[in-house]
């Protein structure tokens, strides 16, 4: 029995299907099926109910999952305390909100692999709620996202950057008063269910500013593209590491007491890759330009 087979088995349990597990362990759907048949053959027991179109773990399979996790944890941590920075190699799965992928994530990864070239990093884009769920069930080692409304007790959140809200406009708008601009220009709203969208709506309400919404965008990247074509203006977090499109926009401060979006890395408190994730936190803080931050990790 190999560690690879157990890792794939746990991935099937975490992701719910062979197809989704294939994405996590970076093999084909067919390879997952072959690996699971090989594991069943080695153990001489059925682990899946194959009476349905998509095989599902049976009672024996589910009973094996906690033991498989224990074996994987022991394997992943067996060198800790023996050879120094033991976990600064291998694979790291990193979830990331789309707004961080244009600059913050790649630059932070570049810093990390410059020091530890043997790392293999898998980046998974996603929205905050989905990323939190994947970290909770160990589908991801860590994720960079806005601070959640609540942090489950088994998770730890490391603050890495604060991004104040700013008004963004196309370069050919020359007005400087943010209130005047918001009241006279079409407004492009960031999706209201996102952390940034909620923050913006709260600020507009507190300032009693009435806007004229003409569009609503799910991602900051799409929103910035629309603003760059002068289709409207918006209020968004001032990205600490902007992509080229965002960099070219006018960014007008909202005053000294403007609210800000908090970005951080979320991980399981019992992660076997804690040392590697802590090093990633350091690199993200350096990349964001907010390295002096010393706030402790947050947990409920």
Please outline what is shown here:
The chain is an alpha/beta fold and 300 residues long. Helix content is 43%, strand content 22%.
Q: What's the total count of β strands?
A: 11
CATH superfamily of the largest domain: Periplasmic binding protein-like II
Query: Could you say which structural class the secondary elements and strand pairing correspond to?
Result: alpha/beta
Q: Could you tell me how far the N terminus lies from the C terminus, measured between alpha carbons in angstroms?
A: 38 Å
CATH architecture of the largest domain: 3-Layer(aba) Sandwich
So how many helices? 12
Strand content: 15-25%
- Basic shape: elongated
Which H/E pattern describes the elements? HHHEEHEHHEHEEHEHEHEHEEH
Give the mean pLDDT: 88
The rounded Rg comes to 22 Å
Low-confidence parts, pLDDT < 50 over ≥5 residues? Answer: 292-296
Keywords: DNA-binding, Transcription, Transcription regulation
Family: Belongs to the LysR transcriptional regulatory family.
GO molecular function: DNA-binding transcription factor activity; transcription cis-regulatory region binding
InterPro entries: LysR_HTH_N, LysR_subst-bd, WH-like_DNA-bd_sf, WH_DNA-bd_sf
Structural notes for this entry:
Belongs to the LysR transcriptional regulatory family. Keywords: DNA-binding, Transcription, Transcription regulation. It comes from Phaeobacter gallaeciensis. Residues 1-58 form the HTH lysR-type domain. The protein is α/β, with parallel strands linked by helices. Strands 3, 4, 5, 6, 9, 10 and 11 form a seven-stranded mixed β-sheet that branches. It folds into three domains: 3-77, Winged helix-like DNA-binding domain superfamily/Winged helix DNA-binding domain (Arc Repressor Mutant, subunit A); 90-162 and 262-288, Periplasmic binding protein-like II (D-Maltodextrin-Binding Protein, domain 2, 3-Layer(aba) Sandwich); 163-260, D-Maltodextrin-Binding Protein, domain 2 (3-Layer(aba) Sandwich), CATH 3.40.190.10. The radius of gyration is 22 Å and the shape is elongated. Helix content is 43%, strand content 22%. α1 crosses α3 (29-43), α2 packs across α3 and α6 (104-115) packs across α12 (274-288).
